[in-house]
Batch of 2 targets.
Target 1
Amino acid sequence: MMLERAASRHTKGKPLAAQQMVQDMIAESYAEIEMIRLLVMRAAWTMDNKGASSKASRTEISAVKFYTPRILLAVIDRAIQLHGALGYTCDMPLEAMYRSARALRLADGADEVHKQSVARLLLEDVQAVEGWPSEHVPTKRANAQRQFGHLIEKAKA
């Protein structure tokens, strides 16, 4: 619907599709839809290969549950925007789609519950470190110098 409307509706003598902001909305929507498809496919693959109740599957499923409705609402909102006032009327399915999509954020538990689940599962295997973070560049550089410094000196000679 978004693409058809962008190609068909004209403003200021040219189609909406020629407007950069409209092109941005279309590109963002396409990328987000594809991202969600991949996230869902990964969750399905993880369930098939690691079991539906595995930690990895639970993490992927929870991510899908909170992120899909967010993207769905954003894409529908952009489509409504491109349709103008018509998009918000009952003459188009977008208004009903938006209402239904909003319910998804609550249907299987609030987003916050799924986010908390994802974070908790991801943090289970993380160990606290003493001192500098493990990716601290000066520390990594000093360690590399200690480990490989003799090779650098040898190459300079």
Target 2
Amino acid sequence: MSDDKSGARVLIPAGPVSLEGMLHVPVAAAGVVIFSHGSGSGRLSPRNRYVAAQLRAAGLGTLLLDLLTEDEDRDYQMRFDIDLLTQRLEYAVRFVRNDAATEAAQVGLFGASTGAASALRVAAAMPDSVRAVVSRGGRPDLTGTGALGQVRAPTLLIVGGLDTDVIELNRSAQTRLVNCKSELHIVPGASHLFEERGTLEEVARLSGEWFVHYLSPTAGASD
């Protein structure tokens, strides 16, 4: 790893490829949040970078990474390959759990758009490793009913008030999150990308509160 003012660049082995990411770990961080981006997005997404910065201000570590290589991302279909994205995200979780700088921290997942589906699948598959999930404008319906029922990590679903179709998809998915605490928060006046004034700030605030609470060492005892 090489440090710069933006954090530490990391290469995460993921089967036949390596995933490029940016890891920030504040001193005494109780948790590290890994970002699972939506289709056509990645570690340079301005929206997720903003949310990540706010999480770091709250004392959390963040890992922004590309789940697809540059060549793979040119294939539009691969952006919606939830199975592949889930597998890649699992590699990222293992990396954080085994890296000396982060092995003591609890892991949270922040999924945006289609990235929410891979985040929830990983939470279902790795219940001992993933302690909290936040979905921003997510498509949890793509997770699959079986996997949703296996999620045990507390899950916050954030949807824009103008994103009516996605609101209904999230409501339906929430009814299948039967083995974890879940909340659906609708941000008034927000569209799918939360581009309206103050709406992304609200996403960051809600996400920070959720992760700070559920990634704290005492979360299990208090809930």
